[in-house]
Amino acid sequence: MPPASVRVGLVGVGSANPEHGLEQARAQQFAAGFFGRLDPGPLASFANAGVETRQIGRPIEWLEQPRSFAEKNAAYVEQALIISERAAERAIERAGIPRGEFGAIVFASSTGIATPSLDARLVQSLGLARSIARVPLWGLGCGGGGAGLARAATLARGLGQPVLLIACELCSLTFVHGDQRKANVIAVALFGDGAAACMVAPEPWWQPERGPELLAGFSHLIDESEDVMGWDVEDQGLRVRFSPTIPAIVEQHAVEWVRAAARSAGLGERESFEHLVVHPGGRKVLDAYESALELGPERLRHARSVLRDHGNMSSATVLFVLERFLADTPASGHAGLLLALGPGFCAEGVGVPMVRS
Asked: Does pTM top 0.90 for this prediction?
């Protein structure tokens, strides 16, 4: 067993989306057909969501017809395997680590179900060792990317071997016909589909020049907050549940989360994070981060650009932001934090003390 002092870092990131594009104007037209009897107020969410386009697992015309839970879940399994494999291949290629040396695969997803979990199929299609440890994560929703990266770092440190993380969501396939609630309108305005993968490795596979180091993970669960975000299981499948209070929760707790994450990462209580990679749950959530943490508009530009181009892809989204951040950020020794929020209600993330320094 390697010592706790073994350093672990990120050596490759990859992402992928389904083939069907959906412009926001078309998504609003789709929603108007289902929610036209509502007060027009909720339809204003489309103009204010911060989303211009996104990619979905089935053409929008497929979603216009009522689908059973079984039909939607079968589409989830099909598309999740395709885009997960594509994202993983990109991350593995960028890492350049032989597949036989991987110690574990972590698979985070909450928009469909499969037993065995889809990582069993991915082990085979990706040509990984059949003895690899499989760690499926379900039910963390949008927080799954942050939690998955933190768990992958812990596993890599403990096993002394590289770990592959995949986060994959087909949010669009959870659309429920007949659900006239505002939450369903906002879901259509925000959600997209995608997969992202990260290769996390301990020394000697990882060295500082290869990518950012990953420190201790950070988690914070708010008591009695189950109603804030999640799924309700109904005959037609997974019906979205989220509260309009989420931006206010971010505004209230963001400073506390950042300070606690700094302590978990071994940084000083008052030390600020120069770099913030956050899950863009929506434009109002990003506005709340900026207000609470007194951030300039450039600090969250990667989160806003991912939201604009792909929508909210649940667990995968923060890893899309991470990919853009790394491609655009010069090497430095400044502290960083990756943070995502999800059902629980909870904050999940990991400290990133160095950026390719």
From this structure: yes
